[in-house]
Structure formats: C-alpha cells, structure tokens
Amino acid sequence: MSMPLQKLVLFGSVVAGGSCTLIYYLIQTFSRASYYQSALEQLHSRPEALEALGPPLSVHYLHLTDRYNFVDIADAQLKIPVSGSKSEGHLYVSSSRDAPFKRWHLQEVFLQLKDGQQIPVFKRSAENGDEGKED
C-alpha cells in the first residue's frame, strides 16, 4: 500500500513543480508585454499618482487567479498591484489591438487606492486614437 502512495507523492510533486513553472512563465509573459510596460510608463509620468502612493514605488506580482486579469487575441485587461510609502492600490489597465500580431494600444489606465480614491492615469483620445493622450 505504501508503493502507490509514494508514486502519488512523486506525481503530486512533479505536477506542483510544473504548476509553479507555468505560473512563473505566465507572470514573466505579462510583465514583458507592451500593454503592461506602457501602463507602468504612464504611471511613472503622473506625479499626482506617484505622490498619492509615496516613494519608493513597488510593483507586485499579478494575481493570476483574479478574474479581472484577462488577455485574449484582441483585448487585455490587468489589475497590477502597486504600493508606496503612503498607500497601496491597483493599477487597472485596458488595452486592445486591431488584429493578431499587431501593436497593442492602451485604452485606459487608472490607479485605484485602497481607500477607494481613483486617479486617472491615461485615456486614449476618441478623436484621433493617438497614444499618449491624458485626461
């Protein structure tokens, strides 16, 4: 009876190790994506958001089990945990692209602090669709 249990423990260890590898891979994939990097660049360009968080700014791992985090072939939305010396919250990111393998375009980025305060960081202009338009 101990033999099957040992096999089960070994199998569980292999599966758990594979799960950790998959989770690490997914986190690395998100953090290198242009929509993730662009959102952080926008956050760093907004003094009022940085002031509300307080220096130094820390960006934490995404919670892959959070249903808000979603990426498919045309749309991406992320909820990036961030913190500073004064407060913490989440950077909400919405991005899209016209077709597979095309460039991602930020649609909206805002910071929501734990006290409920929302700070607009980026909103894509409806008139011309240019990146970089701020509220």
From TrEMBL:
The keyword Membrane applies. InterPro entries: Coa1 (IPR014807). The chain crosses the membrane at residues 6-27. Keywords: Membrane, Transmembrane, Transmembrane helix. It comes from the Eukaryota. It holds the Pfam family Coa1. The keyword Metal-binding does not apply. This is Cytochrome c oxidase assembly factor 1 homolog isoform X4. It comes from Equus przewalskii.
